[in-house]
Specification:
The protein has about 170 residues and is of the alpha+beta class. Helix content is about 15%, strand content about 35%. It folds into two domains: about 130 residues, no CATH class; about 30 residues, no CATH class. The chain binds zinc ion (2 copies). The site of one zinc ion has 6 residues, from loops.
Length: about 170
């Protein structure tokens, strides 16, 4: 979807809002397709002293197999959109991640949402940011609670225990 910006392009202070859904089901991340349902993106583009700033958010249902605990999961994520839209592509050598070229007087929302989604995905696909993973000894999924493997007693703790007992 193209977002027409001709109304604000020469008009500092003006803004247009947008809301769209983008199909990213073809995105592959390892063996997973993390965005099986269309992602929702909304926000606005404001002409700030002649610079077109896009702000907003992307919300998506992330699905896949956790890289840490190997469990299938699905969770809601929200990624912020902060981008600068420029009339001409920058020099190829100095490509900024958050700068997007305009398509004539329009912004290519699908391209922008896709790029920001990919940039925001963690390098690992996790069922939750603080996934505890599997016990390296017994293989139990530690998100379900601690396993029965005994931890090695911490020698510093043993000294403290002796002090307390005195
Ligand atoms: Zn996990
Ligand atoms: Zn264990």
């Amino acid at each position: 979807m193209l977002l027409g910006l001709s109304k604000i392009i020469d008009c500092p202070g003006a803004s247009v809002s947008f809301a769209t859904s983008v199909d990213l089901s073809d995105l592959q991340f390892g063996t997973c397709a993390p965005a099986q349902e269309p992602v929702q993106a909304s926000g606005s583009v404001r002409n700030t002293a002649g610079v077109l700033m896009m702000t907003g958010s992307i919300s998506a249902k992330l699905a896949g197999t956790c890289d840490r605990c190997a469990r299938e999961f699905q969770r809601d994520v929200t990624y912020p959109i902060r981008a600068v839209l420029v009339p001409e592509p920058e020099d190829e050598g100095a490509e900024e991640e958050w700068v997007f070229p305009l398509d004539g007087d329009s912004a290519d929302l699908e391209d922008i949402v896709r790029t920001i989604f990919v940039l925001n995905m963690d390098s690992k696909l996790l069922c939750k940011p603080d996934c505890r993973g599997l016990c390296c000894r017994c293989g139990k999924n530690l998100n379900d609670g601690p396993c029965d493997c005994r931890k090695e007693p911490d020698p510093r703790f043993a000294v403290l225990q002796q002090l307390l007992e005195k």
